[in-house]
C-alpha cells in the first residue's frame, strides 16, 4: 500500500504542476452561474452518510466502506425523487491512501449515478470533534446527536499556518480527478468553517478559530480554482447577519465574494427562511440551501421545501436514514440526557429498515419531486 500511495502522490503532483501551467479559472460571472442553474435544474436531496457509519472516516476507510448499504439507501433516495446528495470527505483519508480513497469515491459516484443522483462533495468541515483520528472509530455514545462526527482538518493542522500548505495536494488531487465529471454537481469547500461548537467541543476549540478557518478557506478557493473544475465552487453561510455587506463578518464576505453559487444553511421556520433568502438575493446568483429541516426547531419539509422549489433554490435536508450518527436526537442532547428514542425526530426520514418515520412527509416530498406514490 505504501508503494501504491507514493506512486499515486507522484501522479497527483504532476497533475498539480500541469494545472498551474494553465491559468486558474476565475470566479464565474453571474451569467455563467445562471447558465449552470439552467442546465442543472432544481437540485433536491439530503446530506448523506450511510446508517452504518458514525462519521466521514468510517464512511470512507477501506475496512468500513459499505457499498451494499449505500446502494440500498440511494435506491430509497431515488424513490423519493432526490437528484442530489451532499457528502463529506476528509483530508486524512487522502493522507492515509490517496489512490484507495479515490477508488472508493469512484465507486460511490457509480452507485449514485445508477440511481440518477448527482453529488456535492464537501472537502473540509469545521463542526464537532476537532481531534480526528484514523482507524477504528468509536461506537456511538447512546442517545447523543452526532457523537462521533469529526472536523477536517483537525485543530492541530488548522492552528499551524505552515501545515496548511500540506492540504493543497488533497484539494487539487480530488478536484482535479473529477474536474470534468458530470456526476459531481457542486464542490463545497468548507462546511461551517468558523463553527465554535460551543455546546459540544467548545472548551477544546481554537481560540482564534474564525481567523484560522478564514486563512484556510482563502487557500482552498485558490487551490480549487487552480484545478479548473467544471462544477461550481461554494461554501455555505450559516450564522451571523447577512442583511448587508457592512453587517457581514469577514469570513462571510469571503464566502459570498468567492463562491460561484451562493449556499447557506437555515434551520428556522418559514418566515425566518424567507428573511434569510431575501438577504442573499442581492447577490443575483443561484442559491442552494445545503442544510435545513430540524423538526424541533419548527423547520419542516412542509412548507419549506415547497417554498424552495417555488424560488428555484436547491434544497438539502440534514440526514436521511437513522443510524450511527444518531441525528434523530436534537442538538441539546449534548446538554440534556435522553434515554430513549425521541417522539419527535430532529432529523432523518427513514428508519434502518427503509420504513418512513412520517409517511405523510414522504408523500409530500414525492409530490414536489414528481414521483408517483410507491
Q: What can you tell me about this protein's structure?
A:
By secondary structure, this protein is an alpha/beta fold. The protein is about 40% helix and about 10% strand. The longest helix is centred in the first third of the chain and has 24 residues. The N and C termini lie far apart (about 45 Å).
Structural key phrases:
single chain; 374 residues; alpha/beta; disordered N terminus
Question: Main sheet: which strands, in order across?
Answer: 5-4-3-2-1-9-8-7-6
Distance between the termini: 45 Å
Helix content: 40-55%
Q: How many strands appear in the DSSP assignment?
A: 9
- Based on secondary structure, the structural category is alpha/beta
What can be said about the biggest beta sheet?
9 strands, parallel
Beta-strand residue percentage: 5-15%
Radius of gyration: 19 Å
| Overall geometry | globular
Unreliable runs: 1-8, 17-21
Series of H and E elements: HHEHHEHEHHHEHEEHEHEHEH
The overall average pLDDT, rounded, is 94
Number of helices: 13
Amino acid at each position: 500500500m505504501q508503494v501504491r500511495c507514493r506512486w499515486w502522490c507522484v501522479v497527483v503532483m504532476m497533475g498539480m504542476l500541469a494545472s498551474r501551467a494553465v491559468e486558474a479559472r476565475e470566479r464565474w460571472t453571474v451569467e455563467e452561474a445562471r447558465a449552470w442553474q439552467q442546465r442543472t435544474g432544481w437540485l433536491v436531496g439530503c446530506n448523506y452518510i450511510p446508517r452504518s457509519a458514525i462519521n466521514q472516516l468510517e464512511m470512507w476507510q477501506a475496512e468500513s466502506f459499505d457499498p451494499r448499504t449505500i446502494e440500498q439507501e440511494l435506491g430509497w433516495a431515488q424513490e423519493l425523487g432526490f437528484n442530489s446528495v451532499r457528502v463529506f470527505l476528509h483530508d486524512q483519508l487522502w493522507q492515509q491512501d490517496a489512490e484507495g480513497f479515490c477508488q472508493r469515491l469512484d465507486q460511490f459516484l457509480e452507485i449514485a449515478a445508477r440511481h440518477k443522483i448527482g453529488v456535492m462533495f464537501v472537502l473540509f468541515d469545521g463542526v464537532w470533534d476537532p481531534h480526528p483520528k484514523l482507524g477504528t472509530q468509536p461506537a456511538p455514545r447512546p442517545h447523543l446527536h452526532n457523537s462521533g462526527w469529526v472536523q477536517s482538518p483537525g485543530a492541530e493542522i488548522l492552528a499551524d499556518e505552515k501545515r496548511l500548505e500540506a492540504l493543497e495536494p488533497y484539494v487539487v488531487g480530488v478536484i482535479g480527478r473529477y474536474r470534468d465529471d458530470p456526476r459531481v454537481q457542486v464542490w463545497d469547500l468548507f462546511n461551517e468553517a468558523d463553527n465554535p461548537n460551543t455546546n459540544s467541543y467548545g472548551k477544546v476549540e481554537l481560540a482564534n478559530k474564525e481567523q484560522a478557518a478564514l486563512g484556510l478557506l482563502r487557500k482552498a478557493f485558490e487551490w480549487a480554482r487552480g484545478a479548473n473544475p467544471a462544477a461550481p465552487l461554494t461554501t455555505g453561510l450559516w450564522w451571523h447577519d447577512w442583511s448587508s455587506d457592512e453587517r457581514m463578518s469577514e469570513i462571510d464576505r469571503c464566502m459570498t465574494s468567492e463562491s460561484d453559487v451562493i449556499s447557506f444553511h437555515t434551520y428556522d421556520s418559514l418566515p425566518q427562511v424567507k428573511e434569510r433568502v431575501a438577504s442573499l438575493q442581492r447577490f443575483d446568483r443561484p442559491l442552494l440551501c445545503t442544510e435545513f429541516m430540524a423538526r424541533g426547531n419548527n423547520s419542516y419539509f412542509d412548507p419549506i421545501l415547497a417554498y424552495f422549489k417555488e424560488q428555484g433554490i436547491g434544497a438539502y435536508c440534514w440526514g436521511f436514514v437513522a443510524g450511527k450518527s444518531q441525528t434523530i436526537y436534537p442538538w441539546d442532547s449534548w446538554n440534556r440526557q435522553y434515554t430513549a428514542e425521541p417522539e419527535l425526530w430532529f432529523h432523518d426520514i427513514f428508519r434502518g429498515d427503509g420504513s418512513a418515520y412520517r409517511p405523510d412527509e414522504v408523500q409530500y416530498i414525492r409530490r414536489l419531486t414528481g414521483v408517483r406514490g410507491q
